[in-house]
Amino acid sequence: MRNVFGLRWIVLVMLLALSGFPLFAQPEVLPLPGSLSGAAAGQGTAGIPAPGGGIIPFIDITVRNPQNNREVAFSLQLLLLLTVLSLAPSIFILMTSFLRVSIVLDFVKRALSLQQVPPNQVILGISLFLTFFIMWPTFDLIYQNSFRPLSQGTINVEQAYREAEGPLRLFMFRQMQNNAGRENIRLFMSMRGLDRPVSPADVPTYVLIPAFILNELTKAFWIGIYLFIPFIVIDMVVASALMSMGMIMLPPVMISMPFKLILFIMVDGWKLLTDQLVRSFN
């Protein structure tokens, strides 16, 4: 009986709601004498919102057909600029010294048999600021010749791109003065079916970038091999000592890691490594 009685009340409330009966209507609040109504207080003349009062302005972005070819060209330049900004992290990683520095620091971490110290975020942070230090002359040239004139309106976007491309190309060419770098350039030129370049200006940028990446990977791995050699010797000596004492079940890494750290600290490894890394780009 209680269920039937409750069901009747539910049906009655639904009927009242559907019929438009003001069951939950709120009482009308009359304005005070001498005050404006809500519509008049929030708007000025002709329905324009009155300034002040903490009102957040409305921002409207309209899409319309271009009136002339200059507006079409400007839209394409803006789209190209947004594309370059979206690819900025990849450009910064692959076209600067960040690639070599980050790989070498990771090799040091693995050679010392360290798993969590220093964390990867610290390694990336060190690589980032070392990259800023190494690339500062190049970045300064890009700012003076490309970004600053573009912001002042003296050059257009295409000229700014050319001015920014020049210092980066010069930096990459300077790192590829060895035979391996030249061979990488010839490799990508031959894969594209291009003639042998006579001067650096004959090498397109889309050929120079992958050649520079291969060159940086090769150099970083060579440096990593040289870093591994003294620490491998320590591992071999410790493993031989443990086997001669019959401690076969004891991991050699657990014993060799303190000796590696002592050797690395005694030779001032971080200072020596940073100095040689920076000099390798000069």
**What characterizes the major β-sheet?**
none
Radius of gyration: 34 Å
Low-confidence sequence ranges: 20-48
Q: In terms of structural class, how would the helical and strand content be classed?
A: mainly alpha
Please count the beta strands (DSSP E, at least 2 residues each): 0
Strand content: under 5%
Structural summary, described in words:
The model is unreliable at 20-48 (pLDDT under 50). It is elongated and about 85 Å long. Helix 5 (98-111) packs antiparallel against helix 6 (120-152). It contains eleven helices and no strands. It has helices at 2-18, 38-42, 69-86, 88-94, 98-111, 120-152, 157-174, 179-191, 205-244, 252-266, 269-280. It has a domain at 71-220. 68% of the residues lie in helices and 0% in strands. The protein is mainly α and 282 residues long.
